[in-house]
Amino acid sequence: MCRARVILIVIMVVMLVAKKILSRYFAIYHHLADTFLEKMQGMTTLKVYQNDSAAEQELAEESELFRQITMKVLTIQLLSTVVMDTVAYGGAACGIVIALNNALNNLRQGQVSRQGAIILILLAASYFLPMRQLGSYFHIGMKASDHIFAFLDLPEKAAGQTSLPKKWP
Q: Which end of the chain, C or N, has fewer beta carbons within 10 A?
């Protein structure tokens, strides 16, 4: 039970760190996309005024910044996954050992059947796995849900507010 709490604490710490980095990550991503679109739409003008190499340099710098923050995001996700896996599978291993020891002792004393001992061992093995899955789903959905809720919170235009002119040409 203590390991389950450790997993929750790890998830909360990772969430706090990842939230800050992910907000910066998506801001840089959107800025890079905007810059790229702007440069592509203005490529003719950049070529005419021979400023295309400066635009290329600007895109290269922004791309490098995006690459660096992407590596930070991936590092945080990898480290949190390693910690959660260690805690989850370590807890499962400890649970298996304890359940196996108790099941064998109870089996020797005739207090539990072989099937009961096997069920105890299998339950001990699967006790921590849902916590591990929760941690992996956290990485996938945290920032996506923020964007979905931000989109859902956008104000809607009221229907029927505009009217057509009386005379059509």
A: C
